[in-house]
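Changelog note: in this version the structure field was regenerated for every chain. One regenerated record is shown below for reference.
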Amino acid sequence: MSSLDNFVFEQILGEDSLSKRVAVLGRFEGQEGQAVVTAHRRHFEKDSLSKLLSGSTQTTLDFKNDIYSKFTGTATAELSLVTIDVVFPATKKHIAKATDQKFQMIRETPETYASVTLPYIRSIPAASIQWVYNVLDKKAEVERLIFEDPDAQLGFMLHPDLKWDQVTPENLYCLAICHRRDIQSLRDLTDAHLPLLQNIRAKGLQAIKEKYGIEEKYLRIYVHYQPSYYHFHVHFTHTAYPGGAVTGHAHLLDDIIDNISNICSDYYAKKVMNFHLGENHPLFKLLESASN
């Protein structure tokens, strides 16, 4: 698929007025399966503002009161760009993730993890993270690679997340995906993994500073639990970025290293984990059934 030709709209799955994002469900004529298409407005580039705020933008006055005015403007095509992400063919999991949903707080004990969450993780087909292996094997997204440490045990790849336009520094969002394939989530981490965590932290920060000029003090580094996919990865975002590091989802990498180093070597295997989870998530239904 190289364009949106023959895309047939079916329904809106979710929308966010703050981030100017909309996710829709549809299909492509003549092809099997459904598609999830997400569109959001691009950030204004500073170099284009003089053209945007000129006679080339058609305006309609909405109201005027003393010194205050409000207009609706129609910009030229090159100033009205949107970013469009397509998942095709989309699975039920992709559709559920894109659909607006309520979130509940979950209390997961080590026993609940062993009896409910871990069997769920093991039931997920390997094909669901084939895209991760494609990245690690350099079969995809090679042109997006920022940095790689190829070491089999300590190494990782650093890429810009698809949510970042790679233009606005304050929206920086990068992912470090480790080469090891035996770490599924935060629960698996022990003191044996400290060299990996410290390596990701040090070299990830260095690579971002060299590539984008952003210093450590302006970066948040964290791990999600539950993650969106069960291959260990670390998030790097600018401190000005409004999402990602949410209470009940994100755990700062420095705290993870400290907890394992100074409190308990298998801290996260023993910890009661509190996190938010969408009601559409398949794990939510399993945890809900187990608690009844």
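Spot check on this record: Residues 194-212 form the longest helix (19 residues). The CA atoms of residues 173 and 237 lie 4 Å apart.
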